[in-house]
Amino acid sequence: MPRPTIIDCDPGTDDALALWLALASPELDVRLVTVVGGNVGLDRTLANARAIVGLTGRDVPVVAGADRALMAPFADAAYVHGDNGLGGLILPDGPAAAPGLAVDALRAALRAAAPGSVTLVGLGPATNLGLLLAIEPDLAGKLAEIVLMTGALAEGNVTASAEFNAWNDPEGLAIVLACGAPVTLATLDLTNQALCTPPHVAALRAAGQGACATAAAAIWDSVPPSRRAGGMGHEQHDACAIMWLVAPDLFTGRPVHASVDLGPGPGRGRTVIDRWGRSGRPHNAIFLETLDPEGFFDVLIRRVASLP
Ligand code: RIB
Ligand code: CA
After folding, report:
1. Residue 254's CB: how many other CB atoms inside 10 A?
2. How many whole angstroms separate alpha carbon 112 and alpha carbon 73?
3. Which of 93, 125, 128, 254 allows an S-S link to 169, with CB 3.0 to 4.6 Å?
4. Ligand nearest to the CA of 87
5. Residue 294 pLDDT greater than 90, yes or no
6. What is the DSSP string of 15-70?
7. Average pLDDT of the chain, as a whole number
8. Residue 29 per-residue DSSP state
9. Do strands 234-235 and 183-186 pair parallel, antiparallel, or not at all (unpaired)?
């Protein structure tokens, strides 16, 4: 049976590929897409999410959420994703956003769900998810799993200490890590194994000529190689979180205790992933450690190429 799935995102070039992968995968029943400010401002991430979902022709509600973090001023990553958040690519405008606020749409969806039935995927700053679980903590019982693209065991990508989503709203992340639902982490240490290179772009263009595959290839072309990855390619951060749900056999991982630094200093937003259990604190997350890059891009390209 397809997994009832809700995706929170901040499109974002890599969010676009993740959304297309999710919407192309029969393993997932995407019920709702909620949007947060992050890579670029909420006005753009919302328009981008509507356009990305709209290009697939799928009737999935898209709802606007928080335009800033719980306890910090807004800070974007336009230097990576371009001012419009999609590397300059202009997509046809998508259907109007569903009315209301993301946190209310999330609460309504989970209230109506059976216990342990909904998979929640966080691809941006965890503000909407943190609000949800702070306002109505019992709704954690409706979740089968929370999968987050967030954090890093090693160096960050926005500061030396922190990965962008965790750094942008560490308080939101802390609430999610403490909520009691099963959490799976796709950190930078995993996503730097999923590097998109020019041959992957060529393979996507050869595999599909629909609007989504064409847009995805153009987005891939727009993203510069990552210097953290030695210029070998650019990480498919958010698609890794979705791919865990679609093809889990491509991954290895281990249970850990994970926390996030909420201090004001240079470590703010750093995720502390206790890989060897040195703290003795109870496991609260699965830390995904490896993925099979060849299998990852084979599935990603085939699924995106299958879209309209
Ligand atoms: O650090 C990478 C993460 O931050 C990705 O989710 C990217 O889209 C941005 O949101
Ligand atoms: Ca994202």
Report:
1. 14
2. 33
3. 125
4. 1
5. yes
6. HHHHHHHHHH-TTEEEEEEEE-SSSS-HHHHHHHHHHHHHHHT----EEE--SS-S
7. 97
8. E
9. unpaired
User: What's the gap in Å between 278 CA and the centre of ligand 2?
Assistant: 30
Which residues are paired to 29 by β-bridges?
A: 4
Residue 154 has a CB neighbour count (10 Å cut-off) of: 11
Residue 127 has pLDDT above 90, yes or no: yes
Q: What digits encode the pLDDT tens for the residues 180-230?
A: 999 999 999 999 999 999 999 999 999 999 999 999 999 999 999 999 899
Atom of ligand 1 nearest to the CA of 237: 5
pTM: 0.98
What are the catalytic residues?
Answer: 237
Which residue range(s) make up the domain with 192?
3-305
User: Tokens standing for 271?
Assistant: 């995720």
The one-character DSSP state at 269 is: T
Among 271, 301, 273, smallest CA distance to 289 is for 273
CB 254 within 8 A of CB 155: no
d(CA 41, CA 54): 20
* E strands present in the chain: 3-9, 28-35, 62-64, 118-122, 143-149, 183-186, 195-196, 234-235, 251-260, 271-274, 285-291
CATH number for the domain spanning 25: value is: 3.90.245.10
* Ligand 1 atom at minimum distance from 165 CA: 4
Q: How many structural domains compose the chain?
A: 1
- Beta-sheet pairing, 285-291 with 271-274: unpaired
| CA gap 78, 48 in Å, rounded | 14
For ligand 1, atom 1, name the residue with the nearest CA: 164
Instruction: Tell how far the Cα of 158 is from the centroid of ligand 2, in angstroms.
Output: 13
Neighbours of 278 (CB within 10 A): 8
Q: Where does ligand 1 bind, in terms of residues with CB under 6 Å?
A: 10, 12, 14-15, 38-39, 77, 123-124, 149, 157, 163-165, 237-238
